[in-house]
């Protein structure tokens, strides 16, 4: 009977230095030790029977034992399990029935907090340290309190293996959500009991249904005074879930913060576990759903084994490339990586192979034994960028380092597209494609946090399409690619549009219609729905240009509806549009990094706003600087930055007026000369660029 040791729970338990050292040495990944009395005790004392410190089978010193016991007891409020159950729980993990599940929800509804509680109750992490969000390991995730990357972790509960895949909540990370759900059988749909069903709740629900997952609705935050579980249950029924008592998708009320009701979630998951006996007899097929580069271990892939058994030392092949590899290491996360040497059907874990290059660990690829021929599993649709932005180093000579960092990060986040670009003002850079503006912002922060890059990011644009007279089409991802022939009417331009569904309580319908009209929305339908929740809800369908949605639309939607409106959208192709390129000249010299492509109706307001902003941030010179916003040859806005005027007459007391006039004349001459040498070479500091680029084009309204 092998019991696997996890390192994380050790630390608080083994406070004494010597025993901690001994324990840590023995608890290295890969150690599977024969249990002695202490492990039986641990399994009996903890209902999860999970890979806890005292479960590693090595008898710790008396002091550590009592401390471990204390840690184990505090990690769950449940009474000790019965002996028969304890035996089942101490079974090797790969013989256990398993279920893979994901937690899906609207942003901030409490996925990561619920994951923490589940990890605590199953003994993967010690309890009582408060809200840690163990799975949000990236710095950007902790700082912003959002999940960006999916994470996978395996837990034991009552003789069952529960594989949790935590997913991001924001619409920009829907790609990660759909990837993670491919590896699951169950989805815990978390809904904030105070906020109710939101736009992302609906879209993740749709993805989960499309993948035929069993849905368990979880009403979270029931500890909040504003919680209205009945209203939210009615909303869930309104979206077609059978959430009533005894219903197919009976909801569970929990407080992820206090732990109330979380045990019921575990019980429901256990009921859905399967032994995968049949699947384990088949040829091995595993789906790679994430991969990254670890500086110490090389390429690491996260895989979900659908059929068969995958062991360390096996020769495997990639269905996509046909290349073969040897499995050098294999294991699960609990939540620290634990080497198990094997992964069987129904299990999710990491594997290291002798891959030379990150690009070989293609996400969505199927791995199989090299000597077998299998049908590849259904992969993921490649993502299509919705927003583009260019990234430049602050110091031109740092470009090679920046490019290297971008390439590495893009391999970790496969939804980002990368192409080189250069600008006269900013030098060499990269044009990147993202799924939304939050995605862009998170990528920027990860470049800074994880790779120490100092960068400048240009204003986001959407992919416009140009159709030439001969019918050939091309996509323009940057204002620099805006076609000159357009002016002569030799090409047609189209912009991407979305079909957006906006839901809000009736009292906000006026302000929501106004908002959509401001953003060039075309109304398609409007429905009033009584709903079981008692409030009259309005459902409006609009066709909106994507360029309008990716900027400040969501912020305005939330603020004008006091957070009650929900909006979701789907791609609706392209529509012909009167687009123009708005450029900026400083002292007559074009500053290409500031150029934007936008609808003609927005050009004047945006041009004025950006010119004003430039006037505020460009440092004053010894001569007057003209800041102009132009479309083609036409100036649509102009701001002047007044020159510094040194008081050259300050030292003259009294005397003849001609002395003053002489000094002023000399100053005038000097300025003429200065302007001649500095013309077109106004030094604009990087901060000035940053503050202008950070102001979105639509803010000019
Ligand atoms: N009162 C209360 N607050 C909660 C509860 N669950 C989560 N929260 C709080 O809600 C906020 C958001 O929780 P997270 O767990 O980060 O939410 P999330 O859904 O993982 O967010 P993303 O990862 O960004 O999608 C945090 O401040 C939590 O402390 C709960 O049951 N009760």
TrEMBL record:
Q: What is this protein called?
A: Putative GUF1-GTP-binding protein
- Which Gene Ontology MF annotations are present? GTP binding; GTPase activity; mitochondrial ribosome binding
* Broad class of where this protein is predominantly found: mitochondrion
**What is known about what this protein does?**
Promotes mitochondrial protein synthesis. May act as a fidelity factor of the translation reaction, by catalyzing a one-codon backward translocation of tRNAs on improperly translocated ribosomes. Binds to mitochondrial ribosomes in a GTP-dependent manner.
Q: Where found in the cell?
A: Mitochondrion inner membrane
- What's the superkingdom here? Eukaryota
* Residues involved in GTP binding: 105-112, 166-170, 220-223
Entry's family note = Belongs to the GTP-binding elongation factor family. LepA subfamily. Belongs to the TRAFAC class translation factor GTPase superfamily. Classic translation factor GTPase family. LepA subfamily.
Q: Which residues form the Tr-type G domain?
A: 96-277
Q: Name one Pfam family in it.
A: GTP_EFTU_D2
Q: Which reaction does it catalyse?
A: GTP + H2O = GDP + phosphate + H(+)
GO biological process terms, alphabetically, are: positive regulation of translation; translation
> Which residue positions does the secretion signal occupy?
none
Q: Which GO terms describe its cellular component?
A: mitochondrial inner membrane; mitochondrial matrix
């Amino acid at each position: 009977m092998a019991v696997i040791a996890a390192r994380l729970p050790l630390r608080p338990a083994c406070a004494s230095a010597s025993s901690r050292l001994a324990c840590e040495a023995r608890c290295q990944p890969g150690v599977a030790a024969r249990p002695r009395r202490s492990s039986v005790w641990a399994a009996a004392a903890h209902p999860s029977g999970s890979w806890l410190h005292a479960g590693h089978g090595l008898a710790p010193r008396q002091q550590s034992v009592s401390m471990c016991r204390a840690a184990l007891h505090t990690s769950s409020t449940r009474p000790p399990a019965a002996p028969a159950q304890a035996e089942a729980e101490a079974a090797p993990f790969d013989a256990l029935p398993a279920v893979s599940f994901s937690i899906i929800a609207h942003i901030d509804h409490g996925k990561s907090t619920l994951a923490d509680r589940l990890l605590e109750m199953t003994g993967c992490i010690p309890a009582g340290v408060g809200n840690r969000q163990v799975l949000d390991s990236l710095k950007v995730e902790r700082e912003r309190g959002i999940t960006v990357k999916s994470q996978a972790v395996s837990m034991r509960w009552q003789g069952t293996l529960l594989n949790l895949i935590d997913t991001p909540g924001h619409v920009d990370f829907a790609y990660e959500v759909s990837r993670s759900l491919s590896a699951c059988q169950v989805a815990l749909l978390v809904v904030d009991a105070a906020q109710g069903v939101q736009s992302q709740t609906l879209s993740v629900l749709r993805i989960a249904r499309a993948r035929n997952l069993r849905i368990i609705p979880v009403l979270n935050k029931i500890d909040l005074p504003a919680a209205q579980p009945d209203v939210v249950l009615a909303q869930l029924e309104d979206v077609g879930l059978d959430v009533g008592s005894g219903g197919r998708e009976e909801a569970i009320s929990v407080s992820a913060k206090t732990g109330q009701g979380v045990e019921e979630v575990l019980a429901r998951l256990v009921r859905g576990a399967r032994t995968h006996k049949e699947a384990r007899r088949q040829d091995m097929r595993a789906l790679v759903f994430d991969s990254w580069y670890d500086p110490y271990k090389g390429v690491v892939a996260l895989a979900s084994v659908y059929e068969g058994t995958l062991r360390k030392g096996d020769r495997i092949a990639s269905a996509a490339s046909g290349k073969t590899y040897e499995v050098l290491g294999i294991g699960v996360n609990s939540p620290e990586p634990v080497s198990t040497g094997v992964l069987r059907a129904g299990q999710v874990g990491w594997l290291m192979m002798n891959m030379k290059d990150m690009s070989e660990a293609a996400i969505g690829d199927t791995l199989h034994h090299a000597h077998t021929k299998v049908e590849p599993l259904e992969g993921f649709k490649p993502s299509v960028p919705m927003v583009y932005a260019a990234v430049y180093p602050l110091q031109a000579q740092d470009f090679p380092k920046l490019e290297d960092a971008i390439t590495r990060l893009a391999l970790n986040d496969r939804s980002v597209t990368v192409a080189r670009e250069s600008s006269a003002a900013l030098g060499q850079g990269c044009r990147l494609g993202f799924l939304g503006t939050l995605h862009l912002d998170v990528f920027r922060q990860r470049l800074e946090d994880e790779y120490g890059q100092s960068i400048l990011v240009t204003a986001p644009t959407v992919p416009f399409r140009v159709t030439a007279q001969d019918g050939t089409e091309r996509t323009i991802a940057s204002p620099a690619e805006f076609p000159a022939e357009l002016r002569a009417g030799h090409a047609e331009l189209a912009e991407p549009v979305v079909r957006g569904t906006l839901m809000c309580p009736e009292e906000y319908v006026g302000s929501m219609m106004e908002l959509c009209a401001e953003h060039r929305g075309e109304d398609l339908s409007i429905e009033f729905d009584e709903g079981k929740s008692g409030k009259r809800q309005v459902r409006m369908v609009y066709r909106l240009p994507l360029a309008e949605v990716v900027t400040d639309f969501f912020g305005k939607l939330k603020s004008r509806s006091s957070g009650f409106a929900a909006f979701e959208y789907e791609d609706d192709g392209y529509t012909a549009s009167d687009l123009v390129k708005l450029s900026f000249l400083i002292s007559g010299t074009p500053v290409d990094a500031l150029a934007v492509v936008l609808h003609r109706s927005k050009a004047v307001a945006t041009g004025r706003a950006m010119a004003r902003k430039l006037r505020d941030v460009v440092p004053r010179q010894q001569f007057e600087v003209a800041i102009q916003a132009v479309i083609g040859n036409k100036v649509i806005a102009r701001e002047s930055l007044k020159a510094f005027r040194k008081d050259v007459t300050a030292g003259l007391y009294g005397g003849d007026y001609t002395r003053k006039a002489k000094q002023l004349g000399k100053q005038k001459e000097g300025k003429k000369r200065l302007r001649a040498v500095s013309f077109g070479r106004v030094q604009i500091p990087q901060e000035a660029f940053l503050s202008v680029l950070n102001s979105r084009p639509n803010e000019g309204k």
